[in-house]
Write a structure and sequence with these properties.
This protein has 8 helices and no strands.
Amino acid sequence: MSLLLAASMLLKALAVPLLARVAWVDFSTQKIANRDVLMLLCLGLGSLQLFSAQAGSWWDMGLSAIAGLILFIALFPFWVLRKVGAGDVKLIAVTPFLIGGSNLTVFSVLLLVFAIITAAVVKNPFLLPAGMFRHYVQHMDRKGVVPFGVPISAAAICTIALQMYQALMVATSSGVLQQLN
């Protein structure tokens, strides 16, 4: 594993706790802070630049920028109609930078799975543990919104974990780790 790829994976690893925080805050308060979205954007751009420099191609960065723009434009009308929050729109637009353009398919499938799970929990909140159920029901009574940042963050975390696993498998199978020892 090259140094640039390792640094890129480190930046992605730093994004995982931030994504978990975004998911928890969105679940408990239905708010996603601009600070968190900007930090994720910086981590994603840094990771993509390191990966692109290592690969010698800027295709992944261009694909991520196009995907982010398309997602923002596609979800903006839903924000105007008050169907999703502005933080959700910004988070989904930043996510392609974080996961990379080549992993958008994996992210999309995982997002679909987690969105279905979220819809099932919203329809039947008794699936949640007792403490979370109470907290969720109290908040739903006041707000009446679904925290879409939770499935976005969960899908991004799983995609990043898969990327790290693949990078580790490539490094182990190529003998790079034995050469370092």
